[in-house]
Specification:
Structural class: mainly alpha
Order of helices and strands: HHHHHH
Number of strands: 0
Number of helices: 6
Distance between the termini: 30 Å
Length: about 160
Amino acid sequence: MTFIAEAFPSPPPAETSSDAEALMGRLLEAMDALVAMVEEETALVRDGRLREAAQLERAKSDFARSYVADMTRLSASRSALSQAAPDVVEAFRQRHARFHDLLRTNMTVLATAHAVSEDLIRGVSGELARKAAPQTYSASGRPSAPSASTIQPLAVSRTL
């Protein structure tokens, strides 16, 4: 954590209410771009188009990094923010809450896709191990489970 804090210093806080409002405007633009990207990524993952969803990663990461830096600056600007127009601040908070709801949905979709793909890989690995193991019977007359020495590792390329 210390390394990150040194590599990316916190931006200076906004000094005036107009600076804070301009910062919120910039954050709203970044939020709109992120919302569009997250919605597209969610739709692509739901449709199983993972290659196309992976292509959004770099742009999404760049916008997210900028968004986090501006949010850090905004949270350090509490005094200027308290002087800003209350309706602007409230509108920003509401949009920010909707954005977090969208992110939760996106994270759920991504976690589900990850769990499903992991289950598929485990199933394929188990089936390959079962077929590769000799079909023998134990002393009780039942088929024996494959031993750990007969199970071969499964290599999977993680690049899409």
